[in-house]
Amino acid sequence: MLNEFDQLTAGKLTMASAIMLESNFRRTVLLMCEHNEEGSLGFILNRPLEVKVSEAISGFEDLDISLYMGGPVQVDTVHYLHTRGDLIDGCIEICPGVFWGGDKEQLSSLMNSGVIDSSEIRFYLGYAGWSAGQLESEFRDGSWYTTDASRDIVFSVEYERMWGRVVRSKGGDYYYAANSPEIPGMN
After folding, report:
1. Which pLDDT belongs to residue 2?
2. End-to-end Cα separation, the chain, in angstroms
3. Do β-strands 121-131 and 66-69 pair in parallel, antiparallel, or remain unpaired?
4. Strands 73-82 and 39-44, bridge-based pairing
5. Does the pLDDT at position 170 exceed 60?
6. Separation of alpha carbons 48 and 67, rounded Å
7. Residue 10 to residue 32: CA distance in whole angstroms
8. Residue 79: which residues within 8 A CB-CB, separation 6 or more?
9. Are 77 and 127 in contact (CB under 8 A)?
């Protein structure tokens, strides 16, 4: 499980390790969207909120899907990941078939006209962010794992089992970590 941070780049999944107890990140799976000398930014994939997008974001009043907690930073901002980089101007491809952001008005129009389906997009309240070197330090402390991202995982609706499934897929000792109790010392 050493040298995990060597694989840390945009387009990777970053999972809280089994020893991570911090409430904002315990058993989370994040999609890393930026990682450079200035810091890191990603979105938590497996924390749906009880709030619907239609209740929280103007221009999407008919969108009856969950809004997700993207992370504890700037929770007054909304971000989105989607699969339609072919239709939305200004978006950034994060990993094959997964795009971040783009023209919000264009997205709203395409969704309201039925061109883009709700299964092709996820909205996030806030984001997870780290200053320069902070995330690397947390990796060295054993707080995080990383693996390749895929469109299937990013848009999976199996939120409750996502962390265990993704960690377990790394094989070896990660299998044991994925099956560890959520609160250490409890079995």
Report:
1. 40
2. 23
3. parallel
4. unpaired
5. yes
6. 6
7. 5
8. 43, 70, 100, 101, 123, 124, 127
9. yes
Tell which residue, 28, 186, 166, 187, has the closest CA to residue 178.
166
Name residue, tokens 């044991």. 176
3-state secondary structure at position 17: coil
Residue 48 corresponds to which tokens in the numbers above? 């749906």
- What is the C-alpha to C-alpha distance for residues 73 and 22, in angstroms, rounded to an integer? 15
CA distance 33 to 41: 6
Q: What number of CA atoms fall less than 13 Å from residue 123's CA on the CB side?
A: 26
Question: Which secondary-structure segment (H or E) carries 124?
Answer: strand 121-131
Token pair, residue 60, equals 């999407």
pTM passes above 0.90:
yes
DSSP 97: T
Burial class for 22, CB neighbours closer than 10 Å (0-12, 13-18, 19+)? exposed
Q: DSSP 3-state helix, strand, coil percentages of the chain (rounded to 5)?
A: 25, 35, 40
pLDDT band at residue 1, thresholds of 50, 70 and 90?
A: very low
5-45 per-position pLDDT tens digit: 557 899 999 999 988 888 999 999 999 999 999 999 999 99
Give the residue from 145, 148, 59, 147 showing the smallest Cα distance to 106.
59
Report pLDDT digits (tens) over 75-114: 999 999 999 999 999 999 999 999 999 999 999 999 989 9
Task: Tell me which residue has tokens 């901002």.
Answer: 77
